Amino acid sequence: MDLKSISSSDLENSGFMYTLSLINGKYKMVILYCLMEFDIVRFNQMKKYINSISYKTLSLTLKEMEADGLVHREEYPQIPPKVEYSLTERGRSLISILDAMCTWGEENKD
């Protein structure tokens, strides 16, 4: 019988830690949820949806998520500037996780 030993485990190099590194942050899960629910969202719409986030934090978080390949940014050359955000295929692959979290929350909230 092969028993797992915590002393030989390496949490830092696990898939769990990698996933957590991509979605960890105060607003990343909320941004993912917003894009999952509404498909394509403009910057100011997202700011209104996530009322407690500052413009700077939203901008930095979206840039991080774009660099990680979770969010696609589409900029249109017009005045005033128009920028839309959506999930990439990689970002959409997290939808099942978000759905499971939503289901768990509905089943366990008071």
Automatic annotation (TrEMBL):
Official protein name in the record: HxlR family transcriptional regulator
InterPro entries: HTH_HxlR, WH-like_DNA-bd_sf, WH_DNA-bd_sf
Domain HTH hxlR-type, first and last residues per copy: 14-110
Gene3D superfamilies according to UniProt: Winged helix-like DNA-binding domain superfamily/Winged helix DNA-binding domain
Pfam families according to UniProt: HxlR
Keywords: DNA-binding, Transcription, Transcription regulation
Gene Ontology terms, MF aspect: DNA binding
Family annotation (PANTHER family): TRANSCRIPTIONAL REGULATOR (PTHR33204:SF29), TRANSCRIPTIONAL REGULATOR, MARR FAMILY (PTHR33204)
Domain of life: Bacteria
Signal peptide interval: none
